[in-house]
Amino acid sequence: MSGELIKNDTRPVFKATTFQHTSKSNNKKRAWKSLKQIISTERSLQWPEDYVHYSSINAPPTFKPAEKFSDLSGLPAPYTDPQTRLRFANKEEYATLIGLPMDITAGYLALRGASSIVG
Amino acid sequence: MEMEVLQFKDLKPVPDVIHSHGVDQHNATIIIDNGSYQCRVGWLNQREPLLIFRNLIAKPRKERSKKDITENSPVLQPQLQVGNDITNIEAVRFQLKTQFDRNVVTHFEAQEHLFDYTFTHLGIDTEKCVAHSVVITEPFLNPNSSRQLMSELLFECYGVPSLAYGIDGIYSYHFAQSKSEDNGLIVSLGYHTVHVIPVLNNKTSFVNTRRINTGGSHIISFLHRILQLKYPAHANAITLSRAEELLHTICAVAIDYKEELNRWTDPDYYENNIKRIQLPYSTVTTTTLTFEQQKERKRELAKRLAEINARKREERLAEDEEKLNNLMAIQELLEIDEDCEEIDQLLTDNQIRNVEDLHKNIAALNVKIEKTKEKIVATASNEDIVVDEIPAKQTKLNKMVFENEKAMHVYIQNAKKLRQDILTKKSARKQRRQDMAKRRTAAGQERMRIISQLARKEKGNDDFGLRDEDWDIYKTISREGGDSDSDAENDKLLELEEIIRIHEPSDVDDTLKPGESHQLHIGIERYRAAELLFKPYMMGSPEAGLMEVIGYVLSLFTPEEQLLLAGNVVLTGGLANLPGLKERIQTDLISIRPFKSHSEVNIISNPSLAAWYGTRKWARSSEFKRNLFTRAQYDEYGSEYFKVHMASNLYVPMPKGHAMDVCE
């Protein structure tokens, strides 16, 4: 454990020498709980009725239809290329679009969150 | 028109000094605004925060192969960098860690490193404790388990005497404004989240608050990605830090996004409003050697090699001749006196056993010398041929004379056509190579089909190879596609380009200024990135945007309350600095409110530091002392306990019998 060794060498004087995170004491290999895990544990508990917790204030899903913008330029895009599923605004953009290598088109789709096959 | 070209500043953090811990700070409270972007730390009795750093650590990974070495000599291991120690953030991008998961602290080992950094740089040197009360900000509705671990760390590891928690946005609202109204709608714009928090009669309405999980970090990474995809050639030069710099310098919020987009479709508007940003580039143009130059270089190399060989040959020749002379001398001696002792001595010196051997050696040396001489003569004449050949070719090109204009035109058109043919062939091959390398293209699938068919051939009726054409199939399925860019083709291309350049000098010439190819042109992107706040769906998030959420939160109140809230919308957090944000929210708010009803939007002064100023002001108020909870109370009431006040979360202890297991 060379990491531990260094930490002890440079341990600031103001720290308690014996402190250990309670959650870490049993097993060093264990990772810290992620926020997702914390939330799901929190939700599973029997809270008082009026209790508001972290996940109860998530913004509602949008009720407005998503406008379509060109993936390349950001302009309003009336067209979609059936091959790549990319949106484009005009024929100049289409000309660039068909020449794009696959990693770029995939990158645009992933950025818009539209890379899943189902969507 | 000469356009202004902006430069990246690439500002680097300056490592913090270790401040001295003066008498002034004796028993003073430490104020910490622990944000997921930056941490701001200062003393209660100082007006400004002493430390401002990114809440980040760069943890060097242990290299497996070097494990043994590092165990014996830990000094060699790269050091852990914390906060402003990280001067080059891009160099350690993949080792960065933060204690935050979204806006909540979850990784308390990282938090411990950051507290070490904080307290060390504040100059604290007391043995085994930090003898100062601490006020620290936490997220809205911070999960109990996170607060629990934070208290544990501060009380048990750092020996803090007392502690208070509060929410950053609410501290800003109540205490960083010169006069805070009893009612208002806080829009707290953070690095990972945006909160819309209604306050009525100075009380936070927790149940009607909403959080959008889109913040500054998303805008930065969105901008980063769209620029990388727009300029794939510069993908490595477009770093997250640079995207962040762009957000801070040129990004803005469009007051009317649709209208803004419309304006950009006009080429004149585009030309006048585009921002040109220079990426660093080197003026050394080693990579743009023409074929001609490359050839020249090759020729020079060959020439030098030939010279070295010639010198070696001459040396060898001289050596051999000397040896021959020696041997001849011995032979002469032999002829004079056969049994001389001197001769025996000489023979052994020259490593010759007997007289017969001597004769053999002489004969061999004679042949060798003859051969070497022949070679020298041959190479000399060869060189002349090589040197003569090249200028002849060049003069041939220059001497082209045409009978009339038309003939020249035809000739050039022909050359151009040939050149285009070669270029098309080359690009087709390139495309094919690219397609072949990928699995999901038609070419790739066809290749796989052929391969599987070849493999499937049953025994017995296998007549593959009977005809010579059968073997061509391997050309088709090779990734190179059978033929590759040949040298002959490149030579031809070079020659054609030369012809065209001589007769039509302007055509092939590139008039690009140095570095112009390394410029980013940023137009709509300036507004597109920040628009993410209002349209999270641009990044695939199903959540409602900022304006929709503000409208939604307002709809949860009675019309009278709505009037109070809409009449005092306060923006806080670093993103509030975005030009146009206030006007945009103002405009959109008017459009969703009843006709002629009052609404007002204001930005808090110094929005990035407002939370720290607010927290400090709160800690200077009379109610502060009552709202601290001590180590004794922590020990008595349990690790979840904290004091509830005007700017804090609510204290709701974990339901009994469900003690939360804080670790997986």
From TrEMBL, chain A:
Chief location category: nucleus
Domain Vps72/YL1 C-terminal per the UniProt entry, residue ranges: 68-97
GO cellular component: Ino80 complex
Coiled-coil annotated residue ranges, if any: none
Any Pfam family the entry gives: YL1_C
Alphabetized UniProt keyword annotations: Nucleus, Transcription, Transcription regulation
Parts of the chain that traverse the membrane: none
Compartment(s): Nucleus
Top-level taxon of the source organism: Eukaryota
One biological process term in Gene Ontology: chromatin remodeling
Entry-linked InterPro entries: INO80C/Ies6, Vps72/YL1_C
Name assigned to this protein: Vps72/YL1 C-terminal domain-containing protein
Source species of the chain: Pyrocoelia pectoralis
Organism lineage string: Eukaryota, Metazoa, Ecdysozoa, Arthropoda, Hexapoda
TrEMBL record, chain B:
Record keyword Zinc-finger present: no
Entry coiled-coil feature ranges: 291-330
rRNA-binding as UniProt keyword: no
Transmembrane regions listed in the UniProt entry: none
Keywords: Coiled coil
Highest rank taxon of the organism: Eukaryota
Single GO BP term: regulation of macromolecule metabolic process
Classification via SMART domains: ACTIN
Pfam family, one: Actin
Family: Belongs to the actin family.
Protein name (Swiss-Prot/TrEMBL): Actin-related protein 5
